[in-house]
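Sanity check

After download, print the first record. It should look like this:
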Amino acid sequence: MNAEQKRAWLAVVSAIFCLAGYGLLLPSVGAFRAFAVFALFAVNGFSPLIGRREKSDERDATISRKATLAGGMASYLTFVAGLMAIWGVAYLGYGQEQVSVDLLPMLAILGMIVLFSVRSLVILILYGRHLEGTDA
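Expected structure tokens:
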């Protein structure tokens, strides 16, 4: 397992912990306060320290580029769909013409988490496909 895969596993595991914590806190403290559990995702800030000395080749760069593109597109889709969902629920559902500003930072943080989670999953999938094609 190379350094990129180790970083990907860190992001996937931390995202799972954040989602589980959010699900556990949601009934007791509400949606806005439970969202604070996503601060645990900041542990991924230490991921560049994993495997700093390892060398990468063109295949690693290609996989990283494809994964970053997939994560960026998923994040953009999450942001646009989230904005439209907020508008749809507020305006069409409740007839409100204004929404709380508190929702926008939550949506930006959610987009960031989607970016890193999808990027990590794509990295793990692409490295897994490479191993299936060889006799390793």
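If your output differs, re-run the checksum step. Summary of this record's structure: The first helix runs from residue 3 to 29.
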